[in-house]
């Protein structure tokens, strides 16, 4: 399916690669900040969220938002929508460039600064992303979205304990908010605590607003625990049966490779 597979399967497979690496080495460089700072992003005419769109639909959305942005680059909602679709399309540098312009036009808007921080993090500039998100926060009137976004950045910097403190502050302000629960679940995935990751991702998936990405991450965590049939069932709620089967087969392949390397290491006396 190379070159023709759908975006959901590509995105899910990328998640599988990250998950397998986490089980092996507990690395966290591939974690991604949640797409939660998109509350003002408009839904496309199709009614599907950005995360649910196929490659063709996403490209159409990029073109449509791009035209609107060209007509009025200072409109906040248009800029946020355009940057979000560019990010989902993998055009990270262009998404960041758009968010830079939106931040210049709206330098004190906390939602804009939070989205700008997210774009910086996606582009790999974690220190600046953290600085931007913290600058947007106000101690006397804190925003749960900023707490959660800051936590996601700290998770990428390896500061998981500090990140979870922020997630719980965010949950105090917005109980059962699925994006916070999802970030908390992914934080535990980074720590290789799969049962805890499943607990929070399952809670996020059960809440109104828990989107396709949450359920795909839940399927990943369930599959990493060896419950492949259940993982396929969860994935099938978002993808076609064929795509769900392909994702689970890919996960099995990745885990088999992991076990092969583990056996080689054991055979070599742990010196590899």
Explain what the structure shows:
This protein has helices spanning 7-25, 55-71, 76-88, 92-105, 110-122, 126-136, 144-156, 160-173, 178-190, 194-206, 212-224, 228-236, 241-267. It folds into 2 domains: 1-30 and 188-200 and 208-266, no CATH class; 35-143, Tetratricopeptide repeat domain (Serine Threonine Protein Phosphatase 5, Tetratricopeptide repeat). With 272 residues, the protein is mostly helical. The longest helix is centred in the last third of the chain and has 27 residues, at 241-267. α7 (144-156) runs antiparallel to α8 and α10 runs antiparallel to α11. One of its GO terms (biological process) is endoplasmic reticulum unfolded protein response. It comes from Aurantimonas marianensis. Residues 1-31 form the signal peptide.
Helix-strand sequence: HHHHHHHHHHHHH
Q: Could you say what the CATH topology of the largest domain is called?
A: Serine Threonine Protein Phosphatase 5, Tetratricopeptide repeat
Supply the number of structural domains. Answer: 2
Computed Rg? 19 Å
CATH architecture of the largest domain: Alpha Horseshoe
Tell me the number of helical segments per DSSP (H or I, 4 or more residues long). 13
CATH homologous superfamily title of the largest domain: Tetratricopeptide repeat domain
Mean pLDDT: 78
Low-confidence stretches: 1-42
Strand content: under 5%
How far apart the termini lie comes to 34 Å
Shape: globular
The CATH class of the largest domain is identified as Mainly Alpha
